[in-house]
Amino acid sequence: MKSVKTISELGKRLFIHIVLWIIVLLFFSFFFGIEGADFRTLLIFSAFFLPVTAATTYAFIYNLIPNYLLPKRYLKFGIYSVYTFIISAVFIILSAFYALVIVLGLELNDQFPVSKNLFYITITIYLVVVIASAFNLLKNNYASVAKNEELKNRILEAQLKLKEQEFQYLKMQIHPHFLFNTLNTIYGFSLSKNEKTPEMILQLSDLLDYILYQTKKPLVKLEDEINHIGNYIALEKKRFQDALEIEFNYGNIPAAVYLPPMLLLPFVENSFKHGKGNDGKLKISICIKLEAEKLIFKIVNSIENSSEISPGKGIGLQNIKRRLDILYGDDYQLNIENDKESFRVLLKIKNLGENLRDIDSEII
């Protein structure tokens, strides 16, 4: 099958070359004769110059240009070009001599005033060579550009697939980390046979539904993320009871606002995991708001003076930062501070709607 296709392509190329040389022959017949000669005589006379024209042209487009000009071996290209012109000039003179002998029979008359001038004949032949070489250079340049574009697209496609794989891997890392802490809380309640354990299991089931099913979607509603943050806080309130002081503020969130799932919840989980106050109470403040399509998320939790928490450390925060890099690039700002009394996280995502459209179509 491949050989048949190759033969077909070769036949097509051969046909195109034959047609082009017929056009060149007609061009020579028109240029070399002006008046007084019939078309057959002009055609025969011009045909004598066709072989040297073809040989010179093919020498440039199949040897000199690809082997010396394109690889930027300019000195050798110049030297071999001069050799080629000298050799072709000799054959032009010989072709002109035999053409005059056969066509004119060495009878000099006024039939071919232009053809008798070898300078015009040579210029015409080299004009064809130059045009063919220029066309070949353009073709090579176009092929090179197309090849570079194809290579660039393949590289971008490979990078996109790697980003997708990395993104899915980071999401899988976050889920077990979050579930481990939540199940740990319920386990503590079950040991003490607390009557609130069934309610906590029900709330956890809602979180499991969110984690196992909703997070498979590229985007979820911001209000859904907020609702599940509320469920998580309710679970933690039962665990901490009087040892927890928490503020959770969010404004009116439009239903059409979306963001990637599990983007904010791990920050909340992290504040409960590492937070602790000097007076034995954990104080947490959470604020979510939208300003001109900019999402602003702020969370502050108290820590002990002896706490060794460092901003940006831990699997959870590292994964979230990496997810933000993949999803939003330079269109987000994440500040994490530790002032020895509180641990602060401020996340800003600008052009939220535009970024999410890009995420939906390109990354996820």
From TrEMBL:
Molecular function per GO: phosphorelay sensor kinase activity
Residue stretches making up the Signal transduction histidine kinase internal region domain: 166-244
Entry keyword Transmembrane: yes
Keywords: Kinase, Membrane, Transferase, Transmembrane, Transmembrane helix
Entry keyword annotation includes Transcription: no
Pfam families: His_kinase
Record-level GO cellular component terms: membrane
Segments traversing the membrane: 14-34, 40-65, 77-106, 118-138
Entries under SUPFAM superfamilies matching the protein: ATPase domain of HSP90 chaperone/DNA topoisomerase II/histidine kinase
PANTHER family assigned to the protein according to its UniProt record, in alphabetical order: SENSOR HISTIDINE KINASE YPDA
Protein name (Swiss-Prot/TrEMBL): Putative signal transduction histidine kinase
Organism whose genome encodes this protein: Gillisia limnaea (strain DSM 15749 / LMG 21470 / R-8282)
